[in-house]
Specification:
Helix content: over 70%
CATH class of the largest domain: Mainly Alpha
Keywords: Antibiotic resistance, Cell membrane, Membrane, Transmembrane, Transmembrane helix, Transport
GO molecular function, one term: transmembrane transporter activity
Protein name: MFS transporter
Number of domains: 2
Number of helices: 16
InterPro entries: EmrB-like, MFS, MFS_dom, MFS_trans_sf
Oligomer: single chain
Largest sheet: none
Number of strands: 0
CATH architecture of the largest domain: Up-down Bundle
GO biological process, one term: response to antibiotic
C-alpha cells in the first residue's frame, strides 16, 4: 500500500514533480496556437503547414496515449514518466531550433510521443505513491496547480511570441525538464502493476495512428485533388477497419471493443467527439482570427481567451457536485448549447473588434458551457463501465477527444473554403472563420440533442472522477487506474 504522506518533504517533492511534468504538456496544448501566425510568417509556411504544426502533436499523442499508460504499468511508472519528460524536452528543443516548417512538424510529432509517455504517468504516480488518507487532497492540489498553469499558459505564450520570439514557447520546456527529472529520480518511488501480463498491442496502436495520419493528410491536402489524396483517404479508412479487426481478435487489445457494449459509454463518447471537434476547431482558428483580422497582438489574443480557463478553474468542482445531485443529462445538454452560443457570438468578432463588447461575451458564454459539461462528461464515462475498467474508459475518452480535435483542425479549413494563404488575408480569413463557427455550433447542438435523448442518471455504485478541477480545453481529464484492487475514490479540489 502506498504510504507517502502529503505533508512530508518527499510528498511535496512528488507533487512538484508531477505538476512540472503535466504542465509541460498542458502548456504546449494551450500556447502553440497563439504562435501560429508568427510561425507562418517566420518560416514562410502556408496554412497546411500550420495545420500540421498542431496536428502532428495531436496525432501521436492520441494514437499512443493508451499504450503509454500500459508501459508505465509494466516497466515502472516513474521510469516511463522520466523517459517521457526527457523525450518531450528533446523534441521541444528540436522544435525551438527548427529551420523550416518540415522539421518543426516532425519535431511536433516526436513531442506527441513524449506527451503520450508522461501524461498518463503524472496522476498514476500520485495514485501509486500517496497514503490513501492523503490521496484525494494530493490529486486536488495537482489538478489545481495544473489549472493555474493552464491559465497562465496563453498569457505566457503571447508574451514570449511578442517578446523573445515563438521559439521560446518550445524552448521553455527544457529548463522545466532539467528541474523535473532529477527531482523525480531522487524523490519519487518506483511503482508498477504486478498483475500486468500479456503482450503490448503495438500493432493496434500503429494501425490506429496510421489511420488517423492518412485521413488527416487527405483532409489537409484535399484542395489539391490528386490521386495521392484519394489513395490516402482510402488507405486511412482501410487502416481503421484493420484496427477494429485486430482489436477484436487480440487477447490483450489496447482498446477492448467489448467496453462499447455499454450503450451509455458509447453515446457519451459520441458526445465527446462532437464537443471536442468543435472546441479543437475553435481554439485553432480563434487566436488566428484575433491576430489576423482583429489586429490583436499574440499576447492580446492569448489573454483574450483566458476567462474561459479561469471559469473552469474556479467552478469545475461545483459543476461536478451539481451534476452528482441532478444527474448528467441536463449538464450534458445545456453545456454544449452554451458553447454553441459562445461560438455564434464570435461572429461579431471582426476587424477592430472591441474586447469588452465583442470578444468577452463570447468567451464568457463559452467558458460557462465548458464548466457545465466537462466534469459531468468525465463522471458519466467512468460510471458507464465496471470500476476496474475506469482508467481504460477514461483513456479511450481522452484519446477520442484528441482525435476529434485532430480531424476538426484538418477538416474545417477544407469545409469552409479556406485557401492555403487565407491567414495572410484578413478578409478571406474572416469569411471562412464565420462559416467555421456556424459549423462548430451545429456540431455542438447535435451533441446536445444526442445527450438529451440518450444519457441517463448514473448508478449509485460507480467510479467517481479523481480530478475535480480541470482547465484543459483539448481533452477531458485523464483519470488514473485503480491501485491494487482499490476502487477510485472521489477526490480533488
Amino acid at each position: 500500500m502506498p504510504d507517502v504522506r502529503l505533508a512530508s518533504p518527499q510528498g511535496k517533492w512528488i507533487l512538484l514533480t508531477t505538476v512540472l511534468g503535466s504542465s509541460m504538456a498542458l502548456l504546449d496544448s494551450t500556447v502553440v496556437n497563439v504562435a501560429l501566425p508568427r510561425i507562418g510568417r517566420d518560416l514562410d509556411a502556408d496554412l497546411a503547414a500550420l495545420q500540421w504544426t498542431v496536428n502532428a502533436y495531436m496525432l501521436t499523442l492520441a494514437g499512443l496515449i493508451l499504450l503509454g499508460g500500459s508501459l508505465g504499468d509494466r516497466y515502472g511508472r516513474r521510469k516511463i514518466f522520466v523517459i517521457g519528460v526527457v523525450w518531450f524536452a528533446a523534441a521541444s528543443l528540436l522544435c525551438g531550433i527548427a529551420p523550416n516548417a518540415g522539421v518543426l512538424v516532425a519535431a511536433r510529432a516526436l513531442q506527441g510521443i513524449g506527451g503520450a509517455l508522461l501524461t498518463p504517468g503524472s496522476l498514476a504516480l500520485i495514485q501509486a505513491s500517496f497514503h490513501p488518507d492523503d490521496r484525494g487532497r494530493a490529486v486536488g492540489l495537482w489538478s489545481g496547480f495544473g489549472g493555474v498553469g493552464a491559465a497562465v499558459g496563453p498569457f505566457l505564450g503571447g508574451w514570449l511570441v511578442d517578446g523573445p520570439g515563438w521559439r521560446w514557447v518550445f524552448l521553455l520546456n527544457v529548463p522545466l525538464a532539467l528541474l523535473c527529472v532529477p527531482v523525480a529520480l531522487r524523490h519519487v518511488p518506483e511503482s508498477g502493476d504486478g498483475r500486468t501480463h500479456g503482450r503490448f498491442d503495438v500493432l493496434g496502436a500503429a494501425l490506429g495512428a496510421l489511420s488517423l495520419a492518412l485521413v488527416t493528410y487527405a483532409l489537409i491536402e484535399a484542395r489539391e485533388g490528386s490521386v495521392v489524396v484519394v489513395v490516402s483517404a482510402v488507405a486511412g479508412v482501410a487502416a481503421g477497419i484493420a484496427f477494429v479487426f485486430v482489436e477484436k481478435r487480440r487477447p490483450d487489445p489496447m482498446m477492448p471493443l467489448d467496453i462499447f457494449a455499454s450503450r451509455q459509454f458509447t453515446v457519451v463518447n459520441v458526445v465527446t467527439l462532437c464537443v471536442y471537434a468543435a472546441l479543437g476547431g475553435f481554439f485553432f482558428l480563434a487566436v488566428i482570427q484575433l491576430q489576423v483580422v482583429s489586429g490583436y497582438s499574440a499576447l492580446g489574443a492569448g489573454t483574450a481567451l483566458l476567462p474561459a480557463t479561469v471559469l473552469m478553474l474556479l467552478l469545475s468542482a461545483r459543476s461536478g457536485a451539481l451534476a452528482d445531485r441532478i444527474g448528467p443529462r441536463i449538464p450534458l445538454t445545456v453545456g454544449p448549447l452554451l458553447c454553441a452560443a459562445g461560438m455564434l457570438l464570435m461572429l461579431r468578432v471582426g476587424a477592430d473588434a472591441s474586447y469588452v463588447a465583442d470578444v468577452l461575451p463570447a468567451v464568457l458564454v463559452l467558458g460557462f458551457g465548458l464548466v457545465t459539461l466537462v466534469a459531468p462528461l468525465t463522471a458519466t464515462v467512468l460510471a458507464s463501465v465496471d470500476v476496474a475498467r475506469a482508467g481504460l474508459a477514461s483513456g479511450i475518452n481522452n484519446a477520442a477527444a484528441r482525435a476529434a480535435g485532430l480531424v476538426a483542425v484538418a477538416a474545417l479549413p477544407l469545409l469552409t473554403g479556406m485557401g492555403q494563404e487565407a491567414y495572410r488575408s484578413p478578409v478571406a480569413f474572416d469569411d471562412a472563420f464565420g462559416r467555421a463557427m456556424v459549423l462548430c455550433a451545429g456540431v455542438l447542438a447535435a451533441g446536445a440533442v444526442l445527450a438529451f435523448a440518450t444519457v441517463r442518471r448514473l448508478p449509485p455504485e460507480c467510479a467517481h472522477p479523481e480530478c475535480r478541477t480541470h482547465c484543459g480545453v483539448t481533452a477531458p481529464p485523464l483519470e488514473g487506474r485503480p491501485v491494487r484492487g482499490r476502487v477510485p475514490e472521489g477526490g480533488g479540489s
